[in-house]
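Students often ask why we bother predicting the structure of a whole assembly rather than each chain alone. The short answer is interfaces. A chain on its own may look different once its partners are present, and contacts between molecules only exist in the joint model. In this exercise we take two input lines together and write out one structure for the complete complex. Read the inputs first and try to guess which parts will touch.
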Amino acid sequence: MQTPRLETSAHSIAGIKPENQDAWVSEVPEKTSQYIHKGALLAIADGVSACSEARKASHTAVSSFTSDYYSTPDSWTIRHSAAKVLNALNRWLYQQGHQDPREMGSWCTTFTAVVIKSTTAHIIHTGDSRAWRYRNGHLECLTQDHVASMGGRQFLGRALGMSPGIEIDYRMEPLAEGDILLLTTDGIHDVLSEDELSETLRNTLDLNSDLNSDLNGDLNSASQTLVDRALKQGSTDNLSCVICRIIQLPAGEQDERLQQLAELHFPPELYPGQSLDGYRVLETLHASKRSQLYLAEDRDTGLQVVLKTPSVNFEDDPDYLEGFVREEWIGRRIKHPSIMKVLAPKPGRKFLYHVCEYIKGQTLRAWMQDHPCPELIEVRELARQIINAVRGLHRLQVLHQDLKPENLMIDSDGRIKLIDFGTARVAGEITESLFDDQGSVPQGTKNYTAPEYFLNGWVDERADQFSIGVIIYEMLTGQLPYPEQSGDNIRVRHYQHMQYQPAMNLPGWIDATLAKATAPDPARRYTSLSEFLHDLTQPNPHFEKPAFQPLIEKKPLLTWQLISFLLLCLNLWQIFG
Amino acid sequence: MNNPDRFNLFSFEGKTKILHLSWMAFFITFVVWFNHAPLTLMVSESLGLTREQLKTMLILNVALTIPARVLIGMLTDHFGPRKTYSALLAVCSIPCFMYALADNFTQAAIARFLLGTIGAGFVIGIRIVSEWFPARQLGAAEGIYGGWGNFGSAVAAMSLPGLAVFFGGDDGWRYAVALTGLLSLGFSFIYYFNVTDTPKGATYFKPKNIGGMEVTSKGDFFLLLLMKIPMYAALALLAWKLSPNGVSMLSSDTVNALYFVLVILCLFDCWKVWQINKEIFTTPVPTIHQYQFKQVAVLNVLYFATFGSELAVISMLPLFFADTFGLSPVMAGLVASAYAFMNLMSRPGGGIISDRYGRKLTLLIMTAGLAVGYLVMSLIDSSWPLTLAVIAAMTCSFFVQAGEGAVFAAVPLIKRRLTGQIAGMTGAYGNVGAVFYLTVLSMVSYQTFFLVIAATACLGFLVLLMMEEPKGQMAEVMPDGSVTMIDVA
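Now the answer. The structure tokens for the assembled complex follow.
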């Protein structure tokens, strides 16, 4: 099991008002893969009653958030996905409100959502609805109301559709089995105190009883009781709540994933003529310490594909296996003309391998050997394609982390194809603790890996920029911008220890561009790949005349020598003068 | 594009070039490491050494290898195989020249002791070969590396006495030894300028948990601690041998200080093992990571008996033949080289046989064979025809070296992820064996020496019965060419 087991219940009534302007959703995806990557969603919205279209606003917010959130790429983090969706949603609501001739800002709603992914709750919140967590007899509010008081009266400070830009609160909370999550609108929590809420939950859910008994009825009665009690105590607003109980959390998840992997057999050495899960091997394309590549033919369709099989050297290395599986995961999600496609394996596969598209051509390494002195214009075109391919990955919040000439193919049409995502990092996985391997083994290739990996610095898209910079430098000069280090342990103690070797025979502005892209300190690199590409194409005026540099920065040794010499002269003059 | 399937031994390009240069480097380390054995008689005449001192020197030669392996392993992690191998070859030429220039027992003994370092070269080559060869060719490549490299001791035994005679005079042996030092120094440059650590663009690895062996159950933890003891005991044994109780090379104070240092080192080592493994006492290890350490222990004991006895025997065999049959130094060296000569075929052969007939069965047969072989060798005396004695030595060495090959064929199957550490520990046990056997030799007759080896081989045989056939899966190719998997129980 990789997903939490939950039960949910909700109740919403108009109360004494004529119209119910609240909206709610509790969505547990049926598709396991969607559940794993995007989690379960609980959301509640309270249309601002001063607005003419409050009901539409809250219902639109909840329904479009649900559908749009689940359409975001699997590789995105929850934070990133929610921010993108809510920004678009807010802009739309705001525009609706402003096109409305009757009133300004008439499409406003609060919005509070909880995404339950793996063992973590992600809380997304704006407005004065609330999310609570009930644990061990104690109820805790996880959100802060966005209200402003003015003249003794409280006003909603933030809500969707209120202004063109919006700030949304986001926080993560670890979950435990038996936790109860509760979302309420102000119709409930304005009249029921925290203690009353807590007491109602405790009584209706009979929380001292055995967890495993069938409690679904209780959960429904809890939501009803909450609403009824608030109404009885004189609530004047709409009343809504969503309750969710965490029955079971995925435990020992990594172990189980590995167990599943271990059930797929490692393919043996394959020879032409043999067939594996319906693919006939035609020839061995490449074999290295880490993997083998075979050209194979799909026996059903006759399509030529490449089978990538893991090397038996790593049959019990969990990091490698995860990387191998992640590669397929990424490859199957990314649709980009410059990125190798990974095809879905046939049903009932028994062995561990990927099926990749067959790219006829040569690696960039081979191309570099064939073209020791390429024209700038050729390199620029390849650079453009490489940068575009990598940007395609970055848009999906994926870092490649192992860009090198061996991982770039040039197909027979001269198009670059990015291959091998075995060491890629997917934002959605790491920061959200699906894989617990943050900070472990930065795997990459000597000379091409950015120094921040070794300095345990913050790693982001600029790390890939460094690798691209090195590759372009190497294409143009046949050299590396930084001298190679030997040994397994790369030693970089400080960014200043790396000395960029200026490229000979290149226009100064190209060299300056490459120096900037491969700056040891990521803060000195380009902020985006598009700027880098732009500077490769057009001379950046900043580079043409070097900015004024004080002598102490340009020639520190000489400066100090001069100062010392001067002091010496002064001393001598004092003594003998 | 080159066909990556082809493994053409006659090419001198790419990975094959790396393999060739690496086995040559290893070959030279063996020539240098055992350049004293065939020249023992000349050296003893020239320096006026007693039999006792000669035998001590044999032990000293293999002692430093045990700790040096650890050091060299770390240096290889740090500087890469290319620099480490070149440096080792260059640096170790110094004690080699020292030995060539030695005037008395102490000088020669110190030189031999320092030369023990060169015996640790094996691990460097294993590393570079594993970087260059894909899994499917690795077994063959490492077999060639190990077997052909070990053959260096045979070449030393065959050629050095002749060279010494060729240079002539009392100092002939000095020129022969110095020549191997020059060879080592020269090759260090060749190696440095012709080899690269990894193929271009290879993904490097940052190994985790360097320095300690991982185990996966509480019982195994204590077994590992138990298996650490012999490594320190071997060095303590050597210290005792050098004390006034033995050859009186060191004062009793120095020896006591050495004992103390060894105890501290041993405790430190155990503490590191604890650091890495303490989690197994609180959290159970996932099934995918589990393995049985007893498998490692069994292989260690077997390598103790095989490689340990090989190192010991190639050290003493020229002396043995000279003493038993009254042969000239040249003749004794030549005859003794027959033992190491078998390396070319039998070590890779052991690997191939165990691939085909199963690890445990092969090991059982090889161990039984070497027990019988050494038993036969213990019977050799001057009444035997020389030819028969040589045939006995060669037969025995076949089982010994095929056993070594079979041990190393089983090493990667125990726990793939820990192969490097398991191989390192197994290799260290080979050296421990050598120290142990040579110490035994210094105290007893040749006959008893061979009997002791035979007895430890019998012990190895019994221990081997506890080993479980490494489980693996074998792919079966059906008649229509499709691949299916059968589990090998």
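Check your guess against this: The first strand of chain A starts at residue 5 and ends at 13.
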